[in-house]
Amino acid sequence: MILARKNIKKFQPYVPGKPMEEVKREYKIKTVIKLASNENPLGPSPDAVRAASKILKYSHIYPDGYCFALRKKIAELYSVSGNQIIFGNGTDEIIELAGKAFLNSSDDIIVSKHAFIRYKMAGDLMGCKVIQIPMKGYTHNLAVMASAVTKRTKIVFITNPNNPTGTYNSKSELDKYFRILAAGGYDPLTFIDEAYAEYVAEKDYPLGLEYLNKGRRVIFTRTFSKMYGLAGLRIGYGVGNSDIIEDIERIRPPFNVSTVAQTAAIAALGDKKHFQRSRSLVIKQKEYLCSAFDRLGLEYVKTSANFILVNVGMSGNDVFKGLLKKGIIVRPMAEYGYINFIRVTIGTEAQNKKFIREIERILKSSS
Question: Where are the domains of the chain?
Fold first, then answer.
């Protein structure tokens, strides 16, 4: 007897960036630079580390399943009610929970062809139809995505800025998207992933909160894994219409966010100096990397996030393997359809300089 659902056998699990310790073991090297998963190279806030360390002695006690103290902070941050917020073991969990809560096999979801792969996975997991809309200039084509909505469409996933391209959609584009939906008489859940919103400098960047406040059927998510440097603790949150959040909350696992994660997140939100240092580093080092890519004649996508998508002019996987031998982890982009591309996280000055030295060596040896 086959126990698994049919679509589980066809389901492709997510492949994360290569762990640092695995690279050390495999290549027998002591120092590894990870520029693959868009983490904060400065690490977490010192305040968060201290707070997490102090709370560890209570690890024998189950966490607050409601995340009361952190919920209060987030509610104040966005001027929303507590029942409009959901917390997850990273925003990945919220994406998956939304799929489990709302999708049937007869439904559609709409995603951008080169968006974060976890949205497609949420649809595949539930056996629904996943409609992938081609990008326009490495950016979500929101007008076409909205025009593709039908009565079968339950969720439209929008990453802003997008991962892995780093591009963003403007306020005028998102406004037009909602106008097209209204004109068609459709009102699917618009799921806006704002994992990299803290890095955006563009003035016409739209916040999901604005559309939520206008009464749109929206959930937007934020993470503590990127700017706040808490990727290892796994914590993120979503803010949306109270009825949407209530339905997702029904299937949220109990105690899904640890006490340590909740405590560190509260402290991280309060450390404005570390936030600004982290943001300033990305701005400065982005300029360095882009200048280096220009010098090397490499095409790259203008980014609003803390990573850059780069066309290396040869197999991205070969470049990835070559960099691994030198203790540098980047992300090859073949799984997203970008065969000759890699995605590199913007690191510290020293990390970025070593990366540029080694990729220049690889490119010269292949020419």
Answer: 15-44+273-365, 46-270
